[in-house]
Amino acid sequence: MENPIHNFIAGKWIPARSGKTFETRNPATGHLVAQCADSNEEDMNDAVAAARDAFESWHRLPAPRRGELLFRVAERLFHDKETLAKALTSEMGKVLMEGRGDIQEAIDMAYYMGGEGRRQFGHVAPSELPNKSGYAIREPLGVVGLITPWNFPMAIPSWKSFPALIMGNTVVLKPSPDTPYTAALFVKTLEEAGIPPGVVNLVTGSAPELGATLVKHPDVALISFTGSKATGGKVAVDAATHYKRVALEMGGKNAIIVMEDADLELAVEGILWSAFGTTGQRCTACSRLIVHAAVKEHMVSMLLDRMAKLRVGDGLDSSIDIGPLINNTQLERVHELVQVGVQEGAQLRTGGHPLTEGHYAAGYFFAPTLFDNVTPTMRIATEEIFGPVLSVLEINSLDEAIKVNNSVEYGLSSSLYTQDINRAQHAMRELRSGIVYINAGTIGSEVHLPFGGIKNTGNGHREAGQAALDTFSEWKSIYVDYSGQLQRAQIDTN
Question: For residue 55, which of 10, 7, 121, 8 has the smallest C-alpha distance?
Answer without folding.
Answer: 10
